[in-house]
Amino acid sequence: MSSVTSPTMNCPICRTREVAFVVKDAPAFYKDPKEPVLRLDCPKCSNYWLNAVRHADGQVAVDPPTLATIEPLTDTERAYFSECVQRMIDHNCWLIIGPDNADHFLGDWRWAQTMAQRWGFEGARLMISGGGFDAANRLFFVVHQDGTRHVLRLVSRHAEPARTRTMMDWLERLRQAEVPTLTPVAGLDGAMIQTASMDGTSRQGVVFEWIAGPVWEDLPKEAVTVDLARNFGAAVGRAHQVSATMETPNWYHCRRYDGRCFTQYMERLKAKPHRDYSAAQIAEFEGLERRLLVAMETLGEGRDDFGIVPADLAPHNTQVVGTVPYLVDMMSFGWGYFLADLQKAMRLTFDREEHETAFLAGYQQVRPLPRGFDQFRELFAEAKRVAVHWF
Ligand SMILES: [Zn+2]
User: Ligand 1 centre and the CA of 57: distance in Å?
Assistant: First the structure.
């Protein structure tokens, strides 16, 4: 790569030759917009952004630290990194390739390979997962030489070990109650949670059976049937019923989506320096906060209404086999209102009234709707619209 006028360059990631590119101004959140970034149209990695610099003579080149990170990669590492870039673009994740994300992708991949040995998965190929992109708890597809698959979840290095243990114990209770969900696979030593060590640090990992069905969000419209919606409602109902009736061990450790959590989220939102909220907007936030806290107070934290919930029920976290919806991502699990969990699942999953009706009927085959469902449902929906990631 040499000059602004040059129409092509070699893709530094996959080394495809003569890839078309354009020079663009950097987005302001990334760096000074007077600085350049490159947009490459690589037939393998797809249309991606790359960090760049402008020399004193006006010529634009790939950012040297980025190049220094990518240059030494082996062919296998390049193939993996190229796949990561493709997947991110396919899922509309916006990123500019620089040394940090290159290190992060490849670092997690090396961790996953070390972790996979705990299950005896030698010779398997590790793919970045098709969706989700939980960068802290990276998910990998393990593709064995005979074509069979597993799923490997690399738990965040900052996660408390008790939290993973809690998730696995709760998951087992869900499975016993016939909630369609993940089936854990034991490592070589028989333990479901494995710890791998590398460079003086350690991380936890878990492996699950492969579920051979598409994620809900990839289903063609006609595949989202009334039966599927009803089964989804029943699965959520069963999950809530487990939490409402189980004896919770005192070592359980997970987050709480309660009034305090909401207030903290809103404090952070209001304090964001780059958002110049008007006095009217701040007053609106505070009004919502007051109303939600009153609702939570009214609902209380009784066992029928508040318990451990998946907390991230969504089309991209549900895999479908026939008309059975498998709840497959529990990494956000924690104590919360069943009402909020229901509201989130419905908001993200249904755009047809008959599906929503079937979903609620499925839930009520298992247990009554949580208290205050009609009264507070819209309020929880409003809270979710304003405080997008609070729950
Ligand atoms: Zn490429």
Answer: 27
CA 289 to ligand 1 center in whole angstroms: 47
Measured in Å, residue 349 CA sits from the centre of ligand 1 at 35
Q: Name the residue range of residue 129's domain.
A: 102-209
CA of 46 to the centre of ligand 1 (A): 7
Residue 12 Cα to ligand 1 middle (Å): 7
Answer whether residue 2 shows pLDDT above 60. Answer: no
- The CA 171 to ligand 1 mean position distance, Å, reads 40
Residue 391 lies in a domain: no
Mean pLDDT of 337-355: 88
Interval between CA 54 and ligand 1 midpoint (Å) = 22
* pLDDT mean over 300-323: 94
Q: Tell me, yes or no, whether 125 and 270 share the same domain.
A: no
Residue 4 predicted with pLDDT over 80: no
Distance 324 CA to ligand 1 centre (A): 38
- CATH of residue 318's domain is 3.90.1200.10
Name the least confident of 113-127, 187-201, 261-275.
261-275
- State the amino acid at position 243 in one-letter form: S
Helix residue ranges per DSSP H, the chain: 64-70, 75-90, 99-116, 161-176, 226-245, 259-271, 279-299, 338-349, 353-366, 373-386
CATH code at 118?
Answer: 3.30.200.20
> Is the entire prediction scored with pTM above 0.70?
yes
Query: Domain end: 209, 230, 246, which one?
Result: 209
Q: Decide if 253 is inside a domain.
A: yes
Distance 65 CA to ligand 1 centre (A): 18
Phi–psi pair at 387, nearest 5 degrees: -100, 75
Structure tokens at 88: 């991110």
Under a CB-based contact definition with an 8 Å cutoff, are residues 261 and 390 in contact?
yes
If asked whether residues 369 and 226 sit together in one domain, one would say yes
Supply φ then ψ for residue 350, to 5 degrees.
Answer: -120, 130
Residues 158 and 261 in one domain: no
Calculate how far, in angstroms, residue 48's C-alpha sits from the geometric centre of ligand 1: 9
Name the phi and psi angles at 207, rounded to 5: -125, 145
pLDDT digits (tens, 9 = 90+) for 60-93: 999 999 999 999 999 999 999 999 999 888 877 7
The yes-or-no verdict on residue 28 having pLDDT over 80 is: yes
Query: Of the candidates 74, 97, 120, which is a domain's last residue?
Result: 97
pLDDT at residue 24 above 60?
Answer: yes
Identify residues whose C-beta is under 5 A from ligand 1, the ion: 11, 13-14, 16, 42, 44-45
Residues 221 and 365 in one domain: yes
